[in-house]
């Protein structure tokens, strides 16, 4: 059984670039990949957070390092790709998880705020998919792109109007690219966290909001960041996930199954 599982989730020697890897959720996903034998590149803004995550990864025998890039600039992302290739030889897995949220009421959303959220949540994914997608196509060996979506990209949620729109665009882009690149063995999927306490949603998690979420989540609790690891390994593996592309993999405690 052990040999079977090892072959099914054999990720040793792979290299993953994790945008948002210094954050809580993508950091846990990166840590899970590293424990599975993947050299993991944490891309973010905080060296302090990256060093803390890298220390945990290395303590468990994994390998990781930190890189920065301007995610709104295609040239900067391209330079990041070249640095990773120089250091690690290749890239096999890309996770697009950088994100921002805002609880601003709809009629008070400024053009500046609207543009900022689309820049971070949508344009950054679009540009990374262009840069790394071209690399995968040119290399001719396939690859896995995992875009981090949101329950609000599946069903619009109240109080996060612009965020919902940005994530819905990510879901749509992922399906389009999955269809486009499937013949080249490039798999593009969306991992969809339910409600996980994280830095970007602290402002909207009021006492009333938490009660609403718990009332709509059959498991009656928030998710823990480590609970995203299993789904990440499935989507990253070109063995276990070889026929999985264009999917929205929900990790939500049953939230999407709940009506009344």
TrEMBL record:
PROSITE patterns: ADH_SHORT
Keyword Oxidoreductase: yes
UniProt KW keywords: Oxidoreductase
Record-linked InterPro entries: NAD(P)-bd_dom_sf, Sc_DH/Rdtase_CS, SDR_fam
GO molecular function, one term: oxidoreductase activity, acting on the CH-OH group of donors, NAD or NADP as acceptor
Family matches, as Pfam families: adh_short_C2
Family: Belongs to the short-chain dehydrogenases/reductases (SDR) family.
Name of the protein this chain belongs to: SDR family oxidoreductase
Organism, scientific name: Pelagicoccus albus
Taxonomic classification: Bacteria, Pseudomonadati, Verrucomicrobiota, Opitutia, Puniceicoccales
């Amino acid at each position: 059984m052990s040999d079977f599982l090892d072959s099914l989730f054999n990720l040793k020697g792979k290299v993953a670039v994790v945008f948002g890897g210094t954050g809580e959720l993508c950091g846990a996903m990166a840590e899970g990949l590293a424990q599975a034998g993947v050299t993991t590149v944490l891309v973010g803004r905080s060296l302090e957070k990256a060093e803390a995550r890298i220390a945990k990864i290395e303590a468990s025998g994994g390998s990781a390092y930190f890189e920065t890039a301007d995610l709104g600039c295609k040239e900067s992302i391209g330079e990041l790709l070249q640095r990773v290739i120089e250091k690690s030889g290749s890239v096999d897995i890309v996770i697009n998880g950088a994100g921002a949220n805002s609880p601003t009421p709809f009629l008070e959303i400024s053009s500046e705020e609207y543009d900022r959220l689309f820049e971070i949540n949508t344009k950054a994914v679009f540009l990374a998919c262009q840069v790394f997608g071209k690399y995968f196509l040119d290399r001719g060996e396939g690859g896995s792109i995992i875009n981090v979506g949101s329950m609000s990209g599946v069903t619009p949620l109240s109080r996060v109007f612009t965020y919902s729109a940005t994530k819905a665009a990510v879901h749509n882009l992922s399906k389009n690219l999955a269809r486009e690149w499937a013949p080249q063995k490039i798999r593009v999927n969306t991992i969809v966290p339910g409600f996980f306490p994280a830095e970007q949603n602290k402002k909207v998690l009021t006492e009333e909001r938490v009660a609403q979420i718990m009332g709509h989540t059959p498991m009656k609790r928030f998710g823990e960041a480590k609970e995203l690891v299993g789904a990440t390994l499935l989507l990253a593996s070109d063995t276990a996930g070889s026929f999985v592309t264009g999917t929205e993999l929900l990790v939500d405690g049953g939230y999407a199954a709940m009506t009344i």
